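Self-study notes.
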Amino acid sequence: MFNMVFDPDEYSRFYNRRFCLQLFYKEKALEISYSPSKINRIEIVQKGEAIYFGPSLVRIHFGKRYEDHSVFNDGKTLDSTNVSVIWKNDQEATVTLRGEEQEPETVEIHFPLKRVMDK
């Protein structure tokens, strides 16, 4: 038979680990955008949460790569209005990041050309 004993120290450690995971590592999707021919994709996520009116970390996933940027939004949670993606073609896009305490920041994304191998 299984006997469960409540350990306040273990509960505290579990709660602290869970809090830290959500605060620093949890990803919240802000925008997912596909190239005109739908061969490439850009996903923009908020990584963790802003702390004490500090910046929010935004990660831009594209292909097998990513870039991290900070968005200063007065400590508020970000949403889709803080980001936009405009595709130039299937390999190039411009991502714009907006926050209440900063000028819009533009990030140029370039996907490598995919080559078809001759048989």
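Second protein, same conventions, sequence then structure:
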Amino acid sequence: MCRKNKRGALVISDLHIGDLNGAVSINPKERENYIKVKNGAYYIHKLLYNLDNQLKKETKNIKIEYLILMGDILDVAVSNEADVYNLAKKFFKDFISKYFHKIIYIPGNHDHHLWEMIQSHNNIISRIENNKEAFRIPNINELSLNLNVVRKTDKIKAINDGVSSKKFKHCKNSFIESIFGKAVYLSYPNLYIYGMKNKQKYGICVTHGHMLEHGWNKTDEEIPGYNSVVLDTNEEFKNLEMKNVIFTEMTDYLFAQNYSDNAEALKNNEDLVKNREEILGDFKLFLPDSVYNKYLKQKDEEDRGGSIDNLKPINLQKLYNNKDIVDKYLLFAKQKMEDNFKGIVFNKFLYGHTHIPSFKDKYLFYEFDETKGTTIELYNTGGWVNIQEKSNQLEEDRFEIDKYPNPMFINSDGEIEKIKLFF
């Protein structure tokens, strides 16, 4: 039997490699917070260097099985993609990857185009080049991961319907594996982790999180079966992606690759962006904190029809402000897990995207009506852009955000642990 590190996986998101204020940058704005690597070839944030040192200790005797990259790792939404991929390849060769056997990648909105590239290459380009029949792009490809089994066992499985899932299960793609230096599995939009603890089958849904916000989720009542009591979860998630892919590719890839900055892109494409104000709000990561906090407070109060100073912490406020789509998304995930894993209890939801850390927060979502609810634990891995070392979330100002990164370990028993980055 193979020896196994008690850490089943490390989960991290929102490195935004390529962003001037991201975790890995060629030319960071705030040099005092970064460490120069290889004579200035690139810089990494000090906290990322601390994480690398902690992983070195954790894996002294045996590697951790999985590194789960939970989206917005490669930032082609704000930077030229050639620069981003060159930088990422250097970084993952020098750091992080070496402590893990395999990588699972869940694309977010800032690296969604990577998902489109791999789909096209594996299903169409590569097959035509090898005189084989091309496949239709699968659109989604969700995987399950059993953390209880040892490394020699095939514990990653595709749980989609149809032929495409079998053929796309393992992303055998030389491009993406060249970046990360090892086998990479792509799962989109969700990864479902399960295992046994105390004779109970636990279930954890892992996703990037962009589809939990109205600004990035263009879902409306036109989607067939969206409010149906009988769910076909494969079709539900395909429909969500179908409604969002054009918007995501436009704002989080085409703008950056064809314009000098997003402000110029928005100005020149205003006719394509009907809800421009909402999108500008979703570009908050590029705004000064004072502007962002003012905008968020004003918009949240307008959405709820009054002051929300006495409501839930800001990480939960964002979910409750989008509760209509959040509840449906969680319902889809719960139903898909129950359909595929008998006796499973969906009790944890792990996401990123918002850059707002969260650990063991409780969230109640309803199924179809408010007579049946499910309470789950929320975990958010935070972000690596414009990091603040101390939380400013004071009682008198609930809208200052702690941007402290929050990577986590998922142990083989399903327990989730924070990683402390400050020493």
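Instructor comment on the second fold: The first helix runs from residue 46 to 58.
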